[in-house]
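Page 42, continued from yesterday. The earlier attempt failed because a stray header line got pasted into the input along with the sequence. Redoing it now with the clean sequence only.
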Amino acid sequence: MKTNCINKLLKAHKFDTKLDKSDLFKDKIYYALGCENEKKWIANIVPSELLSLNLKQAIELIVSTGKDTSITDFDCDIQSPDYKDNWGRFANYIELNNRAIGYMQGNNCCCGIINTIKLLSAIPPSAKSWANCIVLSQIFPNIYGDGYNKAPWEENSIYGIKLNCGYSRNIIDYGISDKISAEEQLMAFNNLAHFRNIKTGFRTVISADQIKISYKDKEEAFSWDNPQHLEIYIQESTKLMNLGFEAMFIDSAKHIGNYDLKHYTGVGALPGYSQMQYILHEIRKRSGKTTIAFIGEKSTDDFKRYENMGLNVGTDYINGDDFFKIRELSEKMRFNRNYAPAVEVENDNYQGGMSYEQRLNRISNALFGYYYPQDKLPSFMQTNDIFPLRYDTNTHHIMMSNPSYSSDGTIESHIENLFAKEDGRNYNHKLGVLFAYALCR
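This time it went through. C-alpha cells are written below.
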C-alpha cells in the first residue's frame, strides 16, 4: 500500500500524528444544499484567519470539513477523487498563487506549499457531476530571484522557470528537507487536497526563452530543437504527475505550432504542433495516468485543433458575463466529452477593474450555465476570485513580482495585508452561498 506523506510532514514540524476533531470555525462551515454531510468547507473568512493556524490545526480542520471526519491518523492511502478519465473537460480550475502566500521574512520567501495546505479547508470540494481543481502557480524555481521577495516595482516573474534543479524555494520548506523531501511535501499537499475531494495541477510555460536548463556546473538556454532539453521537459512534467498532480496548465498554448503569432506575448520559440502532441502523449504514457487533464491558455473556435493536440480545455474563449451565451455554448459542446473551451472568470493577465458583483455573476454563470449539469463547461478562475486581493495589487502584478506587504517585517503582517479585509470577507460569504447551491448537482 502506498502510504501518504502527511504524517511525515506533521513530524517534521514537530507535531504528533494523532488528530482531533476541530471546533475552530464551527460557525463558518458551509454545506452543499442536499448533501450536507458530504460537502463542507469554511467560508465567510479572510485568509489570514486560516494562514495564522499552525500546520496541525490546519490539518485537523481539513479532516473536520472532509467527508470522513472519523480520521484520527493519516496512516492510510488516499486516492484522487474519481471523476473518470475525461474529468478535466468539465472541471472548475482555481489557480492559487502559492508563491504570494509564502512566508515573507526579510527579503526571503519560502514555504508556499505549507500555507496552501492551510487554505484547503476554504476551497469548496468537487460537485457530484464535476470536479474542482487547484492549479498551483509555481512549482519550479523561477529565473529572476527564487527564494526572495523584492520591491513591488522590481521584476521577479513567475513566468521564467528553471528545470532539472528541483523545486522552488518560494514553495518548499527546505528548512525541514532533512526530515521530509521536497517531493514528499508536494505529495502531502496532494494527499490533503484529494482527501478534501479536490483535484490538483500546476502551471508551466513553453516559451523557450522563458526556460533554462540547470546542470551541476552550468545553466543553458532552453531549445525545443535540443533532444536532451525536450526529454528533460517531459521527465520533469511526468515526475509531478507521479507525485499526485493530474492537471497541467500550459501558458501560451494557443500559439503552439506558431499559430496566430501576431497576438503572442511570450518570449522565445514555441514547440511545433506534432512536437506538443508527442510531449502530452509521453507524459500520459510514462506516468501511467489516463486521467491527466491538459489545459491550454486561450482557445479559438477551431476546437478540433486543440483536441487533436491532446488538450482537454482551452481558457479565455468566453467570459462569464452572459448566462445565455454560456448555456448555448454548453449545449453546442455537449457531444464533445474530451475538449471544451472554458468560461473565463479571471486569468493571470488580469490587472484590475472588475467589481465584486461582476465577479460573482461570472462565477454564478460558470456554475449554472447549462441545461443539464453533466454538460457543464469548464471554468477558470484565480486566487482573487476566492479570496479578493488588497485594492492596490492584482493577479498579474503578483505573477510578475513578489512583494512583501508586511508593515512590520513579520510573516503574519504580510498574509494579513495581502488580501482585502471586511469587504473580502463579505465577498467570500456570497461565494460560499453560490457553491452551496451548485455542489450537489
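Notes: The two ends are 33 Å apart (CA to CA).
Reminder to self: strip header lines before submitting.
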